[in-house]
Specification:
Elements lengths: L2 E6 L3 H12 L4 E6 L7 H7 L3 E5 H18 L4 E6 L4 H10 L4 E4 L5 H22 L2 H21 L4 H11 L10 E6 L3 H6 L4 H16 L6 E7 L6 E7 L10 H18 L11 E3 L8 H14 L2 H4 L4 E3 H7 L5 H17 L2 H16 L5 H21 L8 H4 L8 H20 L1 H19 L6 H7 L4 H12 L3 H19 L4 H7 L5 H12 L3 H11 L1
Parallel strand pairs: 1-2, 1-3, 3-4, 4-5, 9-10
Antiparallel strand pairs: 6-8, 6-9, 7-8
Amino acid sequence: MMFKILIIEEDARVKELIKSFLLKHKDFNVMDSFAYTENPMERIINLQPDAIFLNYKIMDAYGDKLVEYIGINMSSMKVIVILDSPNFHQAQRAINQWRVDSIMERSQINEEILEGELASFFKTVKTNRLNNISHKELVEKYNEVALYILHEEVVSGGNEKRIGNAERKLGVKLDFKTEEFYLGYSGYDSSIYSHYTLGADTFNSFFHSLRSKIRSISSKNYKAEIFIHSTSKKFILIVSKKHHGKSDESVDKIFEQIHKLIQFEFQAKISGGLKEHQNFTTVSERLSGLGTHISNSFQKLIWCSDLAFFIAEKGIVRQEDIESLQKSSTLENINYMLENIKGALYSRDSSKLDYSIKVLFNEGLKYSFNRLLYSYSMDYLKEIYISAAMDNDFLSNLDFEKIISNGEYTTIEKTCGCICKLFSDLQEELMSKNCHKRIIIHDAVEYIKQNYDCRLTLKEISEYVCISPSYLSRIFKQKTGNSLNNFINAIRVEKAKALLDNTDYKVCEVCEKSGFLSAKYFSQVFKKLEGMTPMEYKVKAEKVG
């Protein structure tokens, strides 16, 4: 029997001391703790705690309202007020005016004091609760837990002997026929429930309402059962054939009804009508009997459910559907598609860019069902984006970190839509008048980096970027603060240093491979930039090595 505790306290040391004490006792459940500046009324109403540790400042601010609400609705709740220091006026006010159960001085709180304050109170509460539970309610709760254990035994691969032993020990029988049944795996993972800061009471209410409606689904041939998967909080569905059921009736209709019910109940009781979260249900093949083949089938269901990101719009998917949908995509194909996106970005053709992105997601990634390929593609797109934005000095204007994030999307369609919008905005920036010169510089720099080891002329580079030599020379100096010739020399020297550091090439060979036509000129430029000749650099590098 769990007792719910709410802590509203600003002192981190005291809060952790209380929490650590409570967590040592299996009967205590620390429901929440939050900033003392928040309004506590709504949290108290939602959580309905058995006891509350309350900072005096909060009680001072909300005392009358709290006292009135607790007196009317939660008269059995224990209220413990924490004082900053011994203060007769505060203590007298807390006890006489607010009628709290006890007060504690912050500096004096320890485990012994906490034990003394809580032990007798919770013993009384436990007795009252047990007295209020009828025999019928206890039997119902026991049977519910016992059936849950049996269901877990089935999906974990228990054979007939194991299930039979469990039935005898628990005193209940399996509530469905194993001659013909189907498993389903449905709902939302635990992260979505935590998104709505869902308390245990709200989740239990949601589940029990859902289970009642699923059990009452009308079918002449099938019966349906639902229970909670212990780790994911998703639902395990069992749809079994009735003895007199016709073999030609499709079980799909039952799963469609259950699927819609889960979605409806979630929107009604959890998300407040929002449809941003889409339920996904995976259905097994026809099953018969008990044993490891059941656990194997169930593990396949979990695997299929993990693919919801790729095909969430389908809603309900059978195991065999995955095999029919799956298409292989190689890294080589994905790289080709990513390079097409990069080219389309700089092509200034918006329709080409949009098309290239959709090809990647819809043809390359969607039916690959490959998370690694997806993550690789997102990282690659991020590099393309950052490179383009940084080269053009407007990275800070666009929130790429939030948008290009593997954990930001619930479906691949949403990912594709957001990436299309993000890169469209980026392309508009690149095409704007303010970025026109930056695009030219970017193209010129990329051309130099790719052709530094060849004979490069101003005319050749200007023809590549489609402007006059004089205009290129002017805007390059304007934007970079460096002449085009000096930039080319700097690139070539960096390449030469890499060759000197990592190869056995002679200086004359390095000169040629880094694009210099004259050994003398190479030596002059190198010394100007590095403060030493290429030979001196090579000797120094060899000594360091």
